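re: ur question from the group chat, yeah i did fold both. here u go
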Amino acid sequence: MRYLIILFCFLLHSCLLFGQQPPFWSDIEAFKAQDSIQMPAQQQILFVGSSSFTYWKDVQSYFPNFPIINRGFGGSSLPDVIRYEKEVVFKYRPKQVVIYCGENDLAGDSTVTGQIVFERFQTLFNDIRKSLPDVPVVYVSMKPSPSRTHLMGKMQDGNKRIQSFLGKQKNAIFADVYHLMLNTDGQPEVSLFREDMLHMNAKGYKIWQGLLSGYLIR
């Protein structure tokens, strides 16, 4: 009986401990497990951010001449990337960092504005500059997802603020996919998206490929 009580207490403690883990902790642990099997070489191009990168599982085939590490974790917002920046950015000592994040910040909290997204991005950018001062940074603009047309105004505002900020920085690029993904009526081009009207299909990624190919470094 005493053994069962001890076992129960241990299991309860474990459950409580697990429940206290921050968001996306399991995703980060999965990256660590991957790295323990084979640590990526340094001086590669790092893609980091939310599900638009997570779903781009064959990203390397789009850029065969550029060695890429993909560390997108789906559903993440900028505070999540900032929380885990040591684990998903700095440890890889990349030669270039490509970021897609900000869309979920708006979708997950109606009080978040384009200004707030910009301020969060600025924090991440400054952190990268402190630890990797000479590494070029590319920010991929928030995309116009058909399922999130109600957020397009905020997206445009956040994109403009980030674009203006990066225009004043060294080794920094704003990759504007937003306008490339609109139809002639100024609405999101639905043929670029999966059935959920949030995540892109191969046609959408082809547009990203065409734009980013001109920004990645060898």
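okk and heres the other one u asked abt
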Amino acid sequence: MFTLKVADAKLLKDMITSISILVDEATFKIDPDGIKLRAMDPSRVAMIDFEWPKTMFEEYSASEPTKMCINISELLKLLKRTSKDEIVELNLDEKTAKLQLKITGKYQRSFTMPTLEATEEEVPTPKVTFNVKAKATTQGLSQAIEDAQLVSDHVKIEADPEKLVLNASGDLMGATITLQKGSDTLLDLETKEPAKATFSLSYLAEIIKAASATSDIATLEFSSDMPIKLDFQQTKEGKLTFYLAPRIETE
């Protein structure tokens, strides 16, 4: 048996929204200490690594380790019916293989949805040595990505000890966005050696936009032509991390 209660529905809705940008069916690992999810998008270009310890919840109970696979889109439809400060309770009945969602606010309503067959695939954490680590505001980073999207569908991110530079080039126009170390957007920058890599703007934009609702700060780590790691600072030791493979440019 598994149950949890969240006092602020927005917290749960924002997190499920972040997951929904990469996967439609998600297999959560549930144990007495909390909930975890590690999954790749269907194209295997991006990965999410999510963890909420039991301290994230007002109430949490899991009698034994189990897996729960659910349709994220369907769950999100229900959560979008919630308002901030409403209470959400989830209960998994393993005998009936159904998840019950109860929302309590000005009035109470309950929904049930089926669980799906849990996947047994284990997704390993990418083994990457990062030469650049940058801490930025999610709002400023999102605006920079939107600027780059005006001219292209991909962006080259370059780092030196003093700045991050985003270069986007399309058929007609180009854009260069410079984030200076210590500015209101780029709060900190550590560079072992200069690095540059190119990434899909559609993935970056969706990830940062969705995750910005859960965190004001993002930490980016990357090396030349290697995957980028985007870690979004959570409260109460929660974890929300994305990995995005680079776009390999041919001469």
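fwiw on the second one: The two ends are 56 Å apart (CA to CA). Residues 5 and 89 are 4 Å apart (CA to CA). idk if thats what u expected
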